[in-house]
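Q: Convert this sequence to structure tokens.
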Amino acid sequence: MQGALAPSKFKESAQPLHLHITHTPPSAGEKPEDGSTAEAAVATDAGHVASISIQPTDFSTGSYGWKGNRRVNVELTNPETGHKETVAVMINVNATVVGSKSAKDPKADEAEAEEKEEAHEEAPQAAHEEAPQATHDTAPPEEK
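A:
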């Protein structure tokens, strides 16, 4: 497995991901014999709850990946009455690329180094610039 992509490469190449939420457990590695697509499988899945598209994003932590959310209604059977009830559920998905927090853009590293160098060069120069002189008034305050 290779390291995480540079953030700029991720942004250029990442596409949305599409998730299907279902009550039906996945079939381990089985593909439909008829060559049908995932969309066709969803259409025939009696346990299908929702589909969610998650979009490429940068997280505030410095990592990148995909995120998305969707509010869905999930039907449950009340164990006491046997009646079907619907509950509203908010589904939030964050899919972080492993190692992306430490991934850097080579150009960003160069720019950051230049900024530090400029700040280092400007600091001594700023100290030599004229600072406002403090005045000390030694006269006693006027009495009223």
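The chain has a mean pLDDT of 80.
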